[in-house]
Write a structure and sequence with these properties.
The complex is a heterodimer of chains A (387) and B (381).
Chain A (H helix, E strand, L loop, with lengths): L5 E8 L10 H15 L9 E5 L3 H4 L4 H5 L10 E4 L5 H14 L5 E9 L27 H16 L3 H14 L14 H6 L2 E3 L2 E2 L8 E10 H7 L4 E10 L13 H14 L4 H4 L2 E3 L5 H10 L8 H6 L16 H4 L4 H17 L13 E8 L4 E8 L1
Parallel strand pairs in A: 2-3, 2-4, 9-10
Antiparallel strand pairs in A: 1-7, 1-8, 4-7, 5-6, 8-11, 10-11
Helix pairs in contact in A: 4-14, 6-11
Chain B lengths: L5 E8 L11 H16 L8 E5 L2 H4 L19 E4 L3 H13 L5 E9 L6 H6 L14 H16 L3 H15 L13 H5 L3 E3 L2 E2 L8 E10 L11 E10 L13 H14 L8 E3 L5 H10 L8 H6 L16 H5 L6 H13 L13 E7 L6 E8 L1
Parallel strand pairs in B: 2-3, 2-4, 9-10
Antiparallel strand pairs in B: 1-7, 1-8, 4-7, 5-6, 8-11, 10-11
Helix pairs in contact in B: 6-9
The chains are: A alpha/beta (387), B alpha/beta (381).
């Protein structure tokens, strides 16, 4: 059976910030409006809406999709929320892709929105209830605590140092200086990262992305409809996602095997045989600096344990041979969970169209990838895009 | 574009009970999944994708999706969660198969409502935090407003609404998995304590625990599967207005729009439907929704009920399973059980509840107060 081709034809993104004045509804509206305007569409041209947003506990609103529906353009339309934890931002366009690739709809508005600042005193509080109620919650773990375990395991397995990993923060925060939506763009040095406050060793403050408010939206269209609105569609050629067991303590954390499976699914669909050669530009998810490296390996873009060498050699820089996180990533632009994933999709969309402005990578890339990750260090979501 | 046809080929449900202290939500889900896979004649390794259905607050986890894969055989597989009604999950699974990239997809939903110690307070957290929550209204108050408006617009009476409860709970006596089967009279309902006018206690369905799993497959691979197919002819879902201030009260407009979408896809009209399982979270909901579905005219549902047309053996049986009033309210699993029941009827497996010559069935769900989200699926054998 011949697959229906689906394109991204428009995009919008709000500023990412610590405490937005706007409600989640308003943030959703801003991003959706911007996406519609970017390709001269109105809501009347949109046949269905897919919403991605992470835990309800952030906003303190039960059935959050119902609350956000009118802001996200879902009024009197087929409207549905999708959810794979922190991987939601890149899963949302996959969910939208189902809508259009199935032949059921020709256009779909994909909206992601996150309002983390409503969680007092800090959104980490919302993460206390992500753990198993019997075996884990009594230990009172935090997210940073378990990522410290994973980072340490990754460093120990391959003999990677904190100095090496800090380079990722340096690169991404610098890249973000050119991103108009960025929250924590800055010039930092490896020493700054190493000297920042220890949160849970080996994780320091500058190893981590911030908590953010923000929203992002893209518009998907079928092949026959896309050219009515744009002459530069960017095609979603491969989608993949995968969930590992919830019992993360039973896994070896040095390698994200679920992500490799997700990536292989997307590569198979896109007909990619040699990802390290064919994927010219990528936005791996980088909520922590070591995660970008971990994910490059899971995505088969670098040999295991060797991703950091690519960073050291400048291969992953915006002017390098294989730019990674040219947007500035979660470390630089900010991390309103689900909106971050879609921000990464939008970055590849703009780069492949040659519209990334000061962030534009040289070499006219034709094939790129965005990826997100989440749940209990458990889910990988991957979208392969071509100009 | 010609669409790939999709069928439900496996159905598994647990029994529904008011409390289940003996099993965890994982064990409930596992039971339903194993039954569905056996029914379809598939193993987890044959399944290309899984769609779980869960709302964080109801599950008691901040990211409920984490706990989806293990008990359904989904570890290291493409698993996702729909925080919505299970008929929306069914729509996702059907769309996945229609893309041509997936052949077999499983859908899962469950309710462990007895674990929730603060249901009314949790439901209040679904109200707009700025405009509505400060009023501290209960969800039943909001439902009562909708009921009042519905009765005012259509001339439907409290007695007719109470008659829905009598019918459904009596039907449930014949359903071996129903939690709330009971032989009662209209005056029992009318004399039950007030909750929020015009709702009495017995107008409101009581929650139950249980799980449902469904297996979907593409028409072109049915040769490799032993499950008896029930065809998805049309599926629709719609959300209306989020805020209480701007919605169309009384009319269940989201159900009307979702039904239009499903009927259009199916190339059918409401007159083609032989029987339906519709939302009866509240007594009036059943009447309101069969009118919104177009199964009868506005204000006619109460009369249809009184004349016995919607009873088992009538011309248009509605909720012969016992519905939410008789089986129990299952939150996001509600739609899944309605689909399972329609499949049982279309396969001729409905036992003492079997409707003669059932060929076209409809299942509908509404996500409950304060939502205006409904989903509709039309199924044939």
């Amino acid at each position: 059976m011949k697959r229906r081709r689906v394109a991204i034809i428009g995009a919008g993104i709000t500023k990412f910030m610590r405490r937005a004045q706007e409600t989640g509804k308003e943030l959703s509206f801003e991003a959706s409006r911007m996406a519609l305007d970017s390709c001269n569409m109105t809501l009347d041209d949109i046949q269905c809406v897919s919403l991605g947003t992470a835990p309800d506990a952030f906003d303190g609103v039960h059935m959050k999709s119902e609350y956000l529906s009118d802001g996200a353009g879902g009024w009197r339309k087929p409207y549905m929320r999708n959810f794979v934890g922190g991987g939601t931002g890149v899963f949302a366009p996959i969910h939208g892709w189902f809508h259009v690739a199935s032949g059921m709809f020709d256009t779909c508005l994909v909206v992601t929105s996150e309002k983390m600042s409503t969680c007092h005193p800090h959104p980490q509080g919302a993460f206390l209830t992500i753990f198993d109620h019997t075996t884990e919650q009594p230990l009172k773990p935090t997210l940073i605590w378990i990522f410290a375990l994973e980072m340490n395991r990754y460093m120990t397995t391959y003999g990677i140092t904190k100095e090496q990993i800090a380079l990722v923060s340096v690169q991404n925060k610098r890249n973000a200086l050119d991103h108009p939506a960025a929250q924590v763009a800055e010039e930092v040095t490896v020493e700054d990262v190493l000297n920042s406050e220890v949160l849970a060793w080996p994780v320091h403050r500058l190893d981590i992305s911030p908590a953010s408010d923000g929203a992002a939206a893209v518009i998907l269209a079928s092949e026959d409809v896309a050219y009515r609105y744009t002459d530069k569609p960017v095609w979603i050629d491969g989608v993949g996602w995968n969930l590992d067991t919830a019992y993360w303590a039973t896994r070896d954390l040095y390698y994200p095997r679920y992500l490799e499976k997700a990536a292989r699914m997307a590569y198979d669909m896109a007909g990619i045989k040699e990802p390290a050669r064919e994927i010219e530009i990528a936005e791996p998810y980088d909520p922590f600096n070591y995660k970008m490296l971990h994910h490059m390996e899971g995505l088969l873009l670098a040999p295991r344990g060797k991703a950091v060498e690519l960073v050291e050699k400048g291969v992953t820089a915006r002017t390098g041979d294989r730019p990674m996180c040219p947007s500035g990533g979660a470390l630089g632009v900010g991390n309103p969970i689900s909106a971050t994933g879609l921000m990464k999709i939008i970055e590849i969309f703009l780069q492949l169209r040659g519209e990334a402005g000061k962030r534009q990578v040289p070499g006219n890339p034709r094939c790129g990838l965005a990826q997100a990750w989440g749940d209990l260090m458990q889910v990988g979501t991957v979208v392969v895009m071509r100009a | 574009m010609k669409r790939r046809r999709v069928a439900i080929v496996g159905v598994g449900t647990t029994a529904f009970r008011s409390v289940t202290p003996d099993v965890s939500y994982r064990e409930l889900t596992h039971e339903a999944a194993v039954k569905a896979y056996l029914d379809a004649g598939v193993e987890p390794k044959d399944i290309d994708g899984f769609v779980s259905t869960a709302e964080d607050f109801l599950e008691g986890y901040s990211i409920a999706d984490e706990y989806a894969p293990d008990q359904i055989g989904g570890v290291l597989k493409p698993v996702q969660t729909v925080p919505g009604d299970a008929i929306q999950s069914l729509a996702v699974a059907a769309m996945m198969i229609m893309t041509g990239e997936f052949n077999i997809v499983a859908v899962q939903a469950m309710s462990k409502a007895s674990n929730m110690l603060t249901i009314p307070q949790m439901m209040n957290f679904a109200l707009d935090p700025v405009l509505n929550r400060p009023l501290n209204d209960s969800v039943h108050f909001v439902a009562g407003l909708d009921m009042q408006r519905y009765m005012h617009e259509t001339g439907t009476t409290k007695e007719q609404c109470a008659q829905v409860v009598v019918k459904n709970r009596r039907n449930a006596l014949l359903n071996p998995v129903a939690a709330y089967g009971c032989d009662m009279r209209v005056d029992h309902v009318l004399n039950s304590p007030w909750v929020s006018a015009p709702l009495n206690a017995l107008d409101i369905s009581q929650h139950a625990d249980g799980a449902v799993a469904l297996v979907l497959a593409a028409e072109d691979i049915l040769g490799s599967i032993s499950g008896v197919p029930v065809w998805i002819e049309g599926i629709g879902w719609t959300s209306e207005a989020a805020s209480l201030e701007s919605r169309e009260w009384g009319a269940a407009l989201s159900t009307k729009l979702a039904a239009q979408m499903a009927f259009k896809q199916a190339g059918m009209v409401p007159g083609d439907i032989d029987f339906a399982e519709v939302c009866d979270e509240y007594s009036f909901s059943e009447l309101q929704h069969i009118e919104a579905l177009g199964l009868c005219g506005s204000g006619q549902a109460g009369h249809l009920l009184e004349s016995g047309e919607t009873a088992l053996g009538g011309a248009l049986p509605i909720n012969v399973s016992g519905g939410a009033l008789g089986v129990g309210h299952l939150f996001e699993c509600s739609g899944a059980y309605k689909v399972a029941e329609v499949c049982a009827q279309l396969r001729g497996n409905a036992g003492r509840l079997q409707i003669k010559d059932a060929e076209v069935g409809l299942a509908q769900s509404w996500r409950g107060v304060p939502s205006t989200t409904s989903a509709v699926v039309i199924l044939t054998n």
